[in-house]
Amino acid sequence: MLIKVLIFVCWLVYSVNSSGKNETGLDPTGENVCTRTIKYFVNKTQLYMRQVLVPYYDCDGISIFGDCPFWAQTKKFRSESKSSVKNVLVVRTKNISECCPGYQQYNSSCPTAVCKDGCLNGVCVAPNKCLCSKGYTGPTCNQDHNECLVSNGGCSHACINTKGSFLCSCPIGWILKDDKKTCEDHDECLVLNGGCSHACINTKGSFLCSCPIGWILKDDKKTCEV
Questions:
Q1: pLDDT at 19
Q2: Are residues 156 and 180 located together in one domain of the fold?
Q3: 176 plus 220 within the same structural domain
Q4: Any coiled-coil ranges, and where (predicted)?
């Protein structure tokens, strides 16, 4: 039975040591795992020799019938070595694995970067480094990026900044093309003749109503009358 217990203990120790993980559960070869050496103390019992004074009595050569009379006895001491034990603190070292600064543990490695102030409109890609979503900037992606400040945002006319984005706008009489950036003239005459009672003349950004010879344009600028 004792042999079986010893075999089990040896197997257990081998399994722990061969797993490659330490007390933190991290694999020393894992992603973003750092190793450092720490000191610790172990209370150990130590055997040592010490000198003690042992009393004895000497008669200085006086003897009566082979015995030392009490009145002739002189108390003396001699030094002897005796073994003893004491508790001492022994300094040991060991390597521990931990996440490298700026990374968070997951299972046996540290794959996740940590941004201590967060990334409001983005993702944390490295310790305290955010990758901002389009339209945002700043250390924590909390600032709107004004796209209109650079080349008018690519708009041919007006650029309107919005939170996290922007819009291109056109003057009255113009419409935004499919690229959402370029304005082109809107031919108002194509829809209900621009509201003109007779001829509609398209102009850049606007239109005019025209009347036949002998007719005049009323104050509404659309209706012709004789």
A1: 42
A2: yes
A3: no
A4: none
- How many structural domains is the chain composed of? 4
Positions of the chain with pLDDT lower than 70, given as ranges: 1-22
Beta bridge partners of 115: none
Asked whether the beta carbons of 84 and 51 are under 8 A apart, the reply is no
Q: Which residue has the tokens 């109503």?
A: 209
Tell me the two tokens of residue 111.
Answer: 């794959």
pLDDT of residue 21: 53
179 falls within a domain: yes
Other CB atoms within 10 A of residue 211 CB: 17
Task: Evaluate if pTM is beyond 0.70.
Answer: no
| Residue 131 and residue 122 in contact, taking contact as beta carbons nearer than 8 Å | yes
Are 113 and 125 spatial neighbours (Cβ–Cβ below 8 Å)? yes
For the CA atoms of 186, 187, 188, 189, what is the dihedral angle to 10 degrees? 180
Which residues constitute the domain of residue 156? Answer: 147-185
Q: How far is CA 150 from CA 72, 137, 164, in A?
A: 117, 14, 15
